Amino acid sequence: MANASGFFSPPVPRMRRNIQPSIGIFRSGFCFSEGNFRRVVCSSGIEGAEKHVSPSESRLPKLVSKGCKLVGCGSAVPALSVSNDDLAKIVDTSDQWISVRTGIRNRRVISGKESLKNLAVQAARKALEMADFDPNDLDLILMCTSTPEDLFGAAPQVQRELGCRKTPLAYDITAACSGFVLGLVSAACHIRGGGFHNVLVIGADGISRLVDWTDRGTCILFGDAAGAVLVQACDAEEDGLLSFDLHSDGEGGRHLGVPINDNKTSDLLGSNGSVLDFPPKRSSYSCIQMNGQEVFRFAVRCVPQSIESALGKAGLVAASIDWLLLHQANQRIIDAVATRLEFPQEKVISNLANYGNTSAASIPLALDEAVRSGKVKPGHTIATAGFGAGLTWGSAIIRWG
User: Fold this and answer.
1) How far apart are CA 129 and CA 219, in angstroms?
2) What tens digit of pLDDT does each residue of 96-120 get?
3) Which residues pair with 383 in a beta bridge?
4) Is 68-253+288-399 a domain of CATH 3.40.30.10?
5) Is the distance from CB of 216 to CB of 91 less than 8 angstroms?
6) Residues annotated as catalytic (active site), given as ranges
7) What are phi and psi of 83, to 5 degrees?
8) Hey, which residues does 38 pair with through a beta bridge?
9) Is the separation of the CB atoms in 249 and 298 below 8 Å?
10) Ranges for the Beta-ketoacyl-[acyl-carrier-protein] synthase III C-terminal domain (predicted)?
11) Domains of the chain, residue spans
12) Torsions phi, psi for 276 (to 5 deg)
């Protein structure tokens, strides 16, 4: 099991700026200090190890005193809406059976000439418009998706469609339902440690393409969507990513995944009649395979722990948080986590009923709707968490605006 600790801004009142930062190095690659400074160093477990590395082998640690804030959001969904009654026509289920067990009533599915790339571009443009921001000023585009239409990645194509003339760096993050939280943390790392100023984080997935529509255990759950946020560098006092907590555990990967089909060659090659297994036949990915009960147990156990850890790093308690925004996987999971953390239902953001589980898109999609409806206002603090395939899970405490 691996984990990463979150960086955070100290709670008010802040320490004086003239306090000197410490020099320790931690496994996460970040060294925290008093005050508003953050030191970014190469990963190491040895205190003061940088003293033994020549300048030609490593750059000196960099002090960063800036924060990052979320200034714009957007989302896009396919036109085709598939209701529980529609599913009941092709698989043995019913609207009541699905809604009671999951809280889902409808989901959106990519069809016709729609594409995941176009949904991502639409969501991105809306986020940039909200922030009144020119795409040519972007430094980085992070495309959080596990279902790109090109296996080599979708981010560069999104960059092209946005018309970014300066060709900013663009790359994909593949972590399924945890992807967007990882994208936010990655954006903050680039801003605080890499000198980036404007990072577009997109969560988008077309899970419907990986669903076995004859399996009622999985086909009822998933939908397609895209959501995006613009993350900008700011003064430390305006910091909008207060802390994070990230984990992964490959032991649980057997409970949720899309493994590749092993299509072995059956041709006999060579004069001696031996099977050489070369050249291999083309491989393809299977449909989503999920042990629903195990995934449920994992989520209701690990997600509250992660949020509590992130709250502790931020110096906050659950009662001080304005909103709880979880990955929209199952309403029973959302309710169980809220109950454990003692969040009242009126402080829980959920749009699962209308869209189902949209994987990496679910958090930014729900955030965008909450912001545009006036529910989430500038200055509101949100505890958010993603969890799913890998298994991976993580949480972040963010401030909107």
Assistant:
1) 34
2) 999 999 999 999 999 999 999 999 9
3) 324, 397
4) no
5) yes
6) 177, 327, 357
7) -85, 170
8) 32, 64
9) no
10) 312-400
11) 68-253+288-399
12) -95, -15
